[in-house]
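Here is the promised in-class demo. Please do not try to memorize the tokens; focus on the logic of going from shape to residues.
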């Protein structure tokens, strides 16, 4: 396929670039999928699963129970982990302590 890119408009060049990027991504995904299938088959022949050989675990995180609740709106809760919700930040700015909101 020969394309004379000198004769293409800017829009056509951008469209061509997008098509090339999509084709590259699609190609890479197909290659990864094929490699994964091949590796899984090789592991299976040896009597293992791929996750056993790579040390990957399927551990799921457990949900953490809320520790704090907004007294103005009890449906707004916070576990005490991660970023503080706006209602906690505003209450602390007003002089309250986070312990005031314990459930």
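The designed amino acids, position by position:
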């Amino acid at each position: 396929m020969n394309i004379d890119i000198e004769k293409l408009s800017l829009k056509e060049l951008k469209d061509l670039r997008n098509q090339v990027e999509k084709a590259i991504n699609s190609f890479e995904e197909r290659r990864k999928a094929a490699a994964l299938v091949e590796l899984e088959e090789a592991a299976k022949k040896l009597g293992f699963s791929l996750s056993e050989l790579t040390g990957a675990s399927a551990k799921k995180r457990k949900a953490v129970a809320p520790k704090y609740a907004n007294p103005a709106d009890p449906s707004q809760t916070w576990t005490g982990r991660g970023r503080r919700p706006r209602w906690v930040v505003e209450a602390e700015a007003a002089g309250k302590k986070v312990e005031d909101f314990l459930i």
